[in-house]
Amino acid sequence: MSPVAMVMWIGLASTVLMILLIGLLARLQRRQEGGYARRPTAQDCARLVSEALALDEYAAARLEAAQRAATTYEQIALDLAMVEAEREAAWQAHSAAAAAHAAASEAHAGRPIEQTIPDPLQREISSAARAAYRRGEITVEELRAVWQKVDGWDQEREDRAHELSRLRAEEAEAWRQYHAATFAENTARRAAELAEVASRTLTEEAAEAARRAELARIAAADCAAQVKRAKR
């Protein structure tokens, strides 16, 4: 159990204990507020009893919802730890892919993919095709087709081009997976924050409803006593 989840469960337990003390505090408050401004009727007493029952039900429902929110938070916290690890692994994978691509590009820097082409027009076509390939505007197959037409292609150069294309694709995929993992981590963290806030808010609502229910029960008891005395 995470530290925050432990704090939430301790808070719920404290709320239950606090509700047990509410009766004493409510009785003191009732005595300080005094009785009715007018003589109560049996209808007043019945209304107070109904109000107390409704508030009891509301408090129980809020407390149960708070417990569910705490359980939800605990599960989300586990999910968050998992996606954090996945995001870190994705970053490491991207770093490795980027390093491999950079190393291969540097290794091939002194070995031009296309061979020397004597014809100026063919050299211009070859250079333009290579530039378009590096910008990602054409595929390696399209680049190869251009160079085959200008007689500037052989198997070694094809292998090097395929290797660089593969490494670049792996780097791009690793980057995509890292961003997906980051999004999942942020989503899980936000869900955990919402569950924590929900549990705390519901616990506070349960405590307030329990306090009001106890006040209504005390008022109903006082009401019944006054009605009974009035009948004597």
Structure report:
- With 232 residues, this protein is mainly α.
- The protein has one domain (3-115, 154-231).
- The protein is built from five helices and no strands.
- It is rod-shaped.
- 26% of the residues are buried.
Would you spell out the secondary-structure blueprint of this structure?
Blueprint: H1 3-33, H2 42-107, H3 120-134, H4 140-149, H5 155-231
Number of spatially distinct domains: 1
Give me the secondary-structure category: mainly alpha
Radius of gyration: 37 Å
| Helix and strand run | HHHHH
Measured by DSSP, the beta-strand proportion falls in under 5%
Q: How far apart, in Å, are the first and last alpha carbons?
A: 61 Å
The low-pLDDT segments are 3-7, 30-34
How many separate helices?
Answer: 5
User: What would the principal axes of the Cα set say about the shape?
Assistant: rod-shaped
Quick structural summary:
Keywords: Membrane, Transmembrane, Transmembrane helix. The protein is an all-alpha fold and about 230 residues long.
Note the main attributes of this structure.
rod-shaped; disordered N terminus; mainly alpha
